[in-house]
Amino acid sequence: MVGRAAQSGDSRRRLLSSGICLGVLTCAVFATSMVRAESLPEALVKAYQTNPQINAERARQRATDENVPQALAGYRPQVAASLSAGLQAVRDQLPGNVIQTATLKPWQIGLTVTQTLFNGFKTANSVRVAELQVQSGREALRNVGQGVLLDAVTAYTNVLANQSLVEAQRANVAFLRETQGITQKRLNAGDVTPTDTAQAEARLNRGLADLNAAEVNLAISQATYAQVIGNAPAQLQPAQTVDRFGPRTREDAIGLAFREHPAVTAAGFDVDVASTTIRVAEGSLMPNVTVQGSVSRSRDSDPTLGTFGTDQASIIGQVTQPIYDGGTAASQTRQAKEVAAQSRLVLDQVRNQAKTAAVSAWVANEGAKIAVAASESEVKAATVALAGVQKEAAGGQRTTVDVLNSQQDLITAKARLIGAQRDRVVASYTLLSAIGRLDVKTLNLNTPDYLPEVHYHQVRDAWHGLRTPSGQ
Predict the structure, then answer these.
(1) CB neighbours (10 Å) of residue 277?
(2) Is the Cβ–Cβ distance between 190 and 267 less than 8 Å?
């Protein structure tokens, strides 16, 4: 009777397996015909183009570009026009107590042009500071771009992993449900005790809880995917690693992080900004030389004046030497020196952080390779073990709980393999980010690279205009 029950169970399992495979194949064909599968590079392109975080950083960089024309304005003349007009009531008392009144309408128009010839090199140094700020901002933008792309990779692989976990848990629930049914029939036939059916029911309920948890995690990862990528995930293709773009050794990873990571290069530009700011502050202690030209015309209708109008033109040169300003310039100079010292220390700190991140990413990537290989072997061994336990249970050598434990070992191994495969992909991209090469150009993504220098050259030498290059 046990043999017939086992044969019946094997037949049901084969039928159920065939039905599941047929259903999965049908759904896959239908999904392929309806929605084209999205690959990881395509998802990265969408994130690079539409992610609000990176677009906000690009807008910040365009605003930083405007510091340069503002600094260059110190080389250019300042032109001001003036116009005054009004009514003036006049009451004159003449000899003999004669009172004369009049309503006058005086007006004046003028134009003044002021040109700075020398201001202690403040303009030149201010332009240098603005240009260095632009360079630092570009590196900060590149760093944000790396973070967005890594977030996109993480969101993509999380959805893939959670989808696989949901399918694995569904298969586990189907197996446990079938096991419970077989155990119930064997109980009715007197082959097992009620304890076996209780154990099978308990494992089924645990499987249902695990399936629910996997479905919750999938829904959360799908929401995160939509936030980072810009659209809800549909059918996703398996993700591939990017080891071909990474460093060959750990020493190479550290060296590249020191030289190319955008956080390090941005901190280097910040040191230059702080050092140049010292010279800007010192310029306040030096003389200023300006030349001013002006023309004006005024008219006055007062009949008591000898003239009714005046036309003037003048050119005036002026030299101003600060002697004492209460200590403001001296304090600003000392402050700038301290800021420069701070920026050098920050650069050392960022370099150390880059080294630590590179080493961590390298070790994690190498460890992920080992974890995948070990998990694959574990799944194979657990599959063989489950098949053996099932055969032994059919021969009466194993109990129901042995089968349930072996199935639990298999589903745990599959979950570990899914997580290891996900970590393997993320680790390869993390290593690429740690050396500063997680960008559109390195990944060869099918999208134009955002070039911040285009906007910079559009506004650098602009003398006027309120509209941005985008027309706003």
Answers:
(1) 23
(2) no
Does residue 5 surpass a pLDDT of 50?
no
Rounded Cα gap, residues 109 and 356, in angstroms: 67
**Residues paired with residue 111 on neighbouring β-strands, in sequence order:** 81, 295
The three-class DSSP label of residue 73 is helix
Rounded CA separation 262/437 (Å): 9
Looking at the domain assignment, is residue 393 inside a domain?
Answer: yes
Residues in the chain: 472
Domain of residue 445, CATH code: 1.20.1600.10
- Model pLDDT for residues 437-450, shown as the tens digit of each residue: 999 999 999 999 99
Encode pLDDT of 104-142 as tens digits: 788 899 999 999 999 999 999 999 999 999 999 999 999
Decide if 117 is inside a domain: no
Distance set, CA 452 to CA 57, 293, 365 (Å): 11, 40, 32
Q: Which parts of 243-389 are beta strand (E)? A: 288-299, 309-320
224 contacts: CB under 8 Å, gap ≥ 6: 155, 158
Tokens standing for residue 276: 């140049």
Residues 6+ apart with CB under 8 A from 223: none
The answer to whether the CB of 237 falls within 8 A of the CB of 425 is no
| Domain assignment of residue 85, yes or no | no
For residues 148 and 186, the answer to whether their CB atoms sit within 8 Å is: no
**Which pTM was predicted?**
0.84
Distance CA 229, CA 217 (A): 18
Q: Judge whether 132 and 276 are in contact, CB under 8 Å.
A: yes
The residue type of 86 is: G
- Report the sign of the C-alpha dihedral through residues 257, 259, 260, 265, in that order: positive
The residues, ordered by sequence, that sit 6+ positions from 53 with a Cβ below 8 Å of its Cβ are 144, 147, 148
Query: In this structure, what token pair is assigned to residue 67?
Result: 């510091």
Any domain includes 382: yes
Q: How many Cβ atoms sit within 10 Å of the Cβ of residue 111?
A: 15
**Interval 292-311: pLDDT, tens:** 999 999 887 666 655 678 88
Scanning the structure block, which residue is given the tokens 């049914």?
181
Amino acid at 409: D
* 435 neighbors 261 (Cβ within 8 angstroms): yes
Give how far Cα 409 sits from Cα of 199, 341, 356, 380, 386, Å: 16, 58, 36, 11, 9
Tokens of 165: 């976990």
